[in-house]
Amino acid sequence: MESKESLANKYIIALVPLGIMAAAWAIYRFPTERISLGMLALSFVTIFFSSYLRIQLPRAKTYLTMSDAMIMLSMLIFGGEVAVLLSILETAFNSFSLHRKGVSIRLKTAVTNIVIGAISVFVSIHIVRTFFGSITSVLENGDTSAYVRLLAAMALSLFLSNSIAISAVIAARSKRDFISVWSEICGSSLVLYVSSAVLAGFLAKALYQIDVFVLTVAAGVFALFYFGYRRYIEDMMQSAERAERAERARAEQAENHVAQLKHYIEKLEGSTDALQESHANLRQAAYYDSLTGLPNRNYFLDTLKRILHKSRGGNTCTFAVLFLDLKSFKTINDSLGHSMGDRLIKNVAKRISGTIRSGDMVGRFSGDKFGIILNDLKNKEEATAFTERLARRLAEQYSLEDRQIFTSAKIGIAFGDPKYPQAEDILRDADIAMYYAKGNEEDYVIFDQTMHTRAVTRMRLETDLRLAVERNEFELFYQPIIGLDGASLEGFEALVRWNHPQLGLVNPNEFISIAENTGLIIPMTVQILHSACTQIVRWQKGLHDGKPLSVAVNLSGKHFVHPALVEQIRTVIAETGITPACLKLELTESALMENAEMATEMLKQIKQTGVQISVDDFGTGYSSLSYLHRFPIHTLKVDRSFVSTMEEGSENGEIVRTVIALAKALNLTVVAEGIETIHQFHQLRILGCEYGQGYLFSRPLPVSEITKLLTDRNQWRNILPENDFGAVARNLEFTQLRLPGENRTDVLEIQ
Length: 751
Ligand code: C2E
Ligand code: MG
Ligand code: MG
Description:
By secondary structure, this protein is an alpha/beta fold. The chain contains 27 helices and 19 strands. The strands form 4 sheets. The protein has an 8-stranded mixed beta barrel with strand order 10-11-13-14-15-16-17-18, surrounded by 4 helices. Strands 4-5-3-8-9 form a 5-stranded mixed sheet, with helices on both faces. It binds ligand C2E and magnesium ion (MG) (2 copies). One magnesium ion (MG) binds next to loops.
């Protein structure tokens, strides 16, 4: 396709010879005889000033100037040849002055304007001459109607030749339709040519007749017409410009909008990717364990739900759920560090994954807890055989970073049953069974319904215990501690009972471990300490014999390691006003030894409060004598299991004897628990045991009954033997102790 520019160029090139021809014609035919001052003046004004009075045609970007009127004037007075030359010179000067003013006007444009001007004047002259003969003679004849027709013909012919030529150039340049370009400019152009013709007509007439009046009217009409029209054109231009600006702004706005939309779409596309990625991440996080990559509890339960749903049709059990927990994982984690713990978990996960069959599933719930679903079981034995195999595999040595680690798994098995309402229930039962496996040191335990009942009771107690602490539902029973020598009341052991609103009095064995596991043991013990000390202070005030009354309060191993303990003891002492030495804290041998490392420091701090420490249930746990030697303790309480079966010459008798000897050597006081018979009482006195408690003297009693007891602290005097050889025997025994398993008598040596 031909370019716009080349088409316009061809057109201009075609016009140039015509323009030259017109110019040549004008020069050749120039009426030299008419050269006069008037001609020179008119030429001067036309060339140098007419273009200053110019108007731009709206939209066409074409200027129409006063020069047209001046050209027509010169045509009327001096003939067409002068007009052609003036047109050429005026347009040339006009282009030159525009160029000087800094308007960028190309030579090509200037030439085009000159050529078109010359041709259109040339054409117009010939058209007019065809109809009217010599132009100047029409004016000279004074025939007004012919003069007016001449003017009209001039205006029309000039308008046509000029507008057609210009429209053709514009149309060629802009590749637009010629008619549409021409119709755009023809209106205003016609008006201007007509007005130029009218003006030129008046001026010519006035100049010809030198009529001042006509000249003034012509100038006035021209001024009115010119300025009115100019204003109209300016208004039109301004509104056109405003419309153009508004259109540009709209276009810019639309462009911005499109750019914005693009941006949003890009962002949206980006965020959709991010969304998909985070969706995948969320899925991973929601269904998989990050450490092992195994399915997590959610995924495990979802699978279990599907399996349970599928099994609803039949009666037979074809699947089992295993709940697995590692033994002493916490210790490994604490002692070797969490990264080692994590490695172990990963290894365990690998071993389990390697042991299960395809179609089975393993998931990690949290910490060291795993779940396994065994599918398509032929019988229950298949599940137990698998569990045994798995337990053996997990108990094998783990080599982690050059360290050899051993652990074992405790596994609970719950067999799938279509009667289970929820998948969670099967998992819960496997968990309960695992709990029993742990408690009974078994590798695995199969769930049965009694376990559930017990677990439910336990759970209920757990919930109720929270309320019990809030409502202080604990009641203390007091068991007298008797000085065996004189069978006199020395103090009490405070033993807690839970006054449960529905169950009545609940024994400590049933709820202490729950309180320990839930942490409730601490607020509970603080309440007990407070209440026991207040009680003792009150009883002490009622006694007038001046002998101090002591109270022993049992302290859980969980509480013993609590950092707030010493402060709590101090607060209780301060608030109740108890003499610190009258308060004895009983710690079991195992509680002390489990925390042996820090126990010495803790005990020292407790000792500083003035409170005494007893080792409860002594003999039932494993005691390292070296620790015992270092602990700042005050009393050993011989466990009732030794006392109750203490027969002459029996092993238990020997143990009691040894404990007493040990206590003496360590300079500790001994209290024998569970004295039920006079025989035991006598035996213990002979062995030199200083204190004792048991049903022989009194069961643990509520406060109301103790008040009666306190009226006579020596009420057990009657059980003392008539010939009291106790003291003599004690001395004898102490020097000639016989250690268990040895046939010689010796003085006890402490390691
Ligand atoms: P314990 O501290 O060794 O308390 C002695 C237990 O032996 C008491 O059982 C007492 O009733 C029982 N007893 C005393 N004399 C005899 C007897 O002659 N024959 C028999 N068969 N039993 C006798 P109780 O009160 O059931 O307490 C059991 C255990 O519960 C206590 O053993 C103690 O370890 C724990 N306990 C009791 N009260 C508290 C407490 O306030 N805090 C803590 N942490 N533990 C407590
Ligand atoms: Mg006790
Ligand atoms: Mg005890």
